[in-house]
Amino acid sequence: MANQEDQFKKVISHAKEYGYVFPSSEIYDGLSAVYDYAQNGVELKRNIREYWWKAMVQMHENIVGIDAAIFMHPTTWKASGHVDAFNDPLIDNKDSKKRYRADVLIEDYVGKLDAKIDKEVKKAAKRFGDAFDKAQFLETNPRVLGYKEKGAAILKRMGQSLEKEDLADVKALIEELEIACPLSGSKNWTDVKQFNLMFGTRLGATAESSMELYLRPETAQGIFVNFLNVQKTGRMKIPFGIAQTGKAFRNEIVARQFIFRMREFEQMEMQFFVRPGTQKAWYEQWKKTRLQWHLSLGMGAENYRFHDHEKLAHYADAAADIEFKFPFGFKELEGIHSRTDFDLSSHEKYASKKLQYFDPELNERYVPYVVETSIGLDRMFLAIFSHSLKEETLENGSTRTVLQLPAVLAPTKAAVLPLVKKDGLPEIARSIVADLTWDFAVTYDEKDAVGRRYRRQDAVGTPFCITVDHDTLNDDSVTLRHRDTMVQTRVKIAALKDLIKEEISMKNWLQKCAQ
Questions:
Q1: What pTM was computed for the model?
Q2: pLDDT one-digit tens code per residue, 430-467
């Protein structure tokens, strides 16, 4: 666990030092669980959003996008169930006076069991060497199986208790597992209570005439209330989807783990409207499709896993998370939910307006069922950033810090470096920058020795460095250096654009989804 914590501290430090993420309003000592995306962070975030939008909307003929307002009529949140059921189970430690989410305390306990399994695997791999069969070991080792069974039983009991709203049993489970306050080590807990997560605000010029509103806690409802508008104006036939990205707000009492859990965050969601009775097949299809999208970024299949929900939300008949191995363990990255017809039926009831689809094939009207895919953009950012940050020992014994971002997502694709600041080299470098800027983000760097500039670009995540030297004056060629391999090749200036485009092309990366 100590190594995981050290690695996570490095991620947070690197994000600030290299212009990715800053604490919000830091000059006033910041604001808990609120962050600003800096000059490189905003580009990485935009590139992730575009990578999702391209795959989700542009590559699907039957999926369209919208951008719904953050403010919605307050009855929306009554209909959606958020006013009555959007709660977190909270528990206070009487000695440290710290508040925690009860379910997170229990999940963290299970996470420690996963860490013990990893430890057993490493020990066995060391003992058996090349003959080690990891898959067989995980399926047969009694100690590993014991940890797995214990973890599964704990999560099942917690899920059932939360579903029944048996908060006394959630507390009992915490006590039985002897879970201590991470800060003080005390096991002196209060009862578990529910806390509503929505931020309230008011709309209107005066206190008397103003209307009480909520900042939206999710982006999905903007899609549901626009279902008929989109279907009719777009002449959409079922099955079809509506996607959107945008800010959502949750009053997280226990916001933590950097940008993993924030009070203001961004979602990328798609609601897929289907014929009733077909939702389970579409649910399985979207699970497969979304995992393929993640795998297309090349961050290793071993770092993803599905977690099927024991506790289903009030609207769902099936739900699973795609979990990613963050520096603090496997955690939810994306949710795929079969939401049935709950949302549209509920809005029908509260708005007294029909939200039905006429199916010409069946010659009947019905309220469609919905399969949702929902991913946190900030979590995706953290997954990519934390996985990409590496420290490597080189052949000469020195080390380098490198941010191996997928080239398609990197904020800056290439840095152009004149070897020296004279002899006409900066002018050639500037002309290369001016030409390449039309096609992708490029930077110019002339400060320090070229080796130090390489290291700086490695740390910021730039996939390519282009060095202009004295030979360039004679042969119109430059040195193209690859960030990940550090391999350097001599390339004609005229060929640069096509070579780099090939490596960063969204088409080339996303085609892996279809394989």
A1: 0.82
A2: 999 999 999 999 999 989 888 899 999 999 999 999 99
**SS3 of residue 431 by DSSP:** helix
Half-sphere exposure of 488 (CA within 13 A, CB side): 9
d(Cα 378, Cα 149) in Å, to the nearest integer?
Answer: 32
Antiparallel, parallel or unpaired: β 200-203 and 211-214: antiparallel
Give start-end residues of each CATH 3.30.930.10 domain in the chain: 1-80+197-391
Q: Which CATH number fits domain 1-80+197-391: 3.30.930.10, 3.20.20.80, 3.60.20.10, 3.30.240.20?
A: 3.30.930.10
CATH architecture of the domain 394-514 equals 3-Layer(aba) Sandwich (3.40)
In eight-state DSSP terms, residue 93 is B
CA dist., res. 284 & res. 422, Å (int): 61
CA 217 – CA 215 distance, rounded (Å)? 6
- Which H or E run includes 155? helix 142-163
CA distance 226 to 249: 20
Kindly state the tokens that stand for 293. 């999208």
pLDDT > 70 fraction of the chain, expressed in percent and rounded: 97
